[in-house]
Amino acid sequence: MIRNQVVLRQLHDEKQIDLLNAVFETQETERKRLAEDLHDSVGQVLSAIKLNLHRLDKIIENNDPKSLLSDTRKLTDECIQEIRNIIHNVLPPVLTDFGLLDALQSLCERLEQNTAIKITFTKDLPNERFSSEIEVTLYRIAQELFGNAVKHSGASAIQLQLTREKNTLMMSFSDNGVGFDPDNVKHGFGLKNLQSRAQFINGKIHTYAKPHNGTLTTIKVPLH
């Protein structure tokens, strides 16, 4: 009995280590993505603005600089919009200002506008606020599920639902895409990432899938 308890404790510790590693890998991945976004979008626009200002300094005494100034203004506007987009992806203001429900609604509307996927968001709870940890974590999970579905599922329709039953907050995500075989899929970084996020808020996440029959992911989070 003691030997079995030791083995179970070791398995539990190994699982905790794997989840912790997944959290660290997630943080590094997000930092890397943010750095790449800044470099590829904002960095290039700022470089173009700097070049235009350098040219403007040379020609302003002898030529009409209006066209160059107009181009520089456009680049500046583009840079400002890129910065807003990056900030929205990292921590959207609507999430901090208005809460999870409005943030998920905004996320669904934005993705539907930018893809050919029909996205439906339903909610069965009042427009209340939860702890920042729960709101940010569920928003991140939704972002990742949407990202996976857009990239890999081939879905034409996605449903996101948020409900509350007494002291349990539940979020479900389903699509009509290609699905996968749970018995043959390799549990890689993506699934560990979702699991670690859910565990961070003491939640439980389950994914159900069949080949050619879409996927369903449910997250249940206890509320105190």
Q: Provide the β-strand percentage band.
A: 15-25%
Helical content stands at 55-70%
Low-pLDDT stretches: none
What form results from the Cα inertia axes? elongated
Distance between the ends: 35 Å
The count of DSSP E runs of length 2 or more, i.e. the number of strands, is 5
Write down the domain tally.
2
- Integer average pLDDT: 80
Q: What's the order of the H and E elements?
A: HHHHEHEEHEE
Tally of contiguous helical segments: 6
CATH H level of the largest domain: which superfamily? Answer: Histidine kinase-like ATPase, C-terminal domain
Radius of gyration: 23 Å
CATH class of the largest domain: Alpha Beta
Which structural class is indicated by helix and strand composition?
alpha+beta
> Which sequence of strands runs across the widest sheet?
1-2-3-5-4
CATH architecture of the largest domain: 2-Layer Sandwich
Here the CATH topology of the largest domain equals Heat Shock Protein 90
Main sheet characteristics:
5 strands, mixed
Task: Tell me what the structure shows.
- The protein has 224 residues and is an alpha+beta fold.
- It has two domains: 2-90; 97-222, Histidine kinase-like ATPase, C-terminal domain (Heat Shock Protein 90), CATH 3.30.565.10.
- It has six helices and five strands, in the order ααααβαββαββ.
- It has a five-stranded mixed sheet with strand order 1-2-3-5-4, covered by helices on one side.
- The longest helix has 58 residues, at 2-59.
- The radius of gyration is 23 Å and the shape is elongated.
- 19% of the residues are buried.
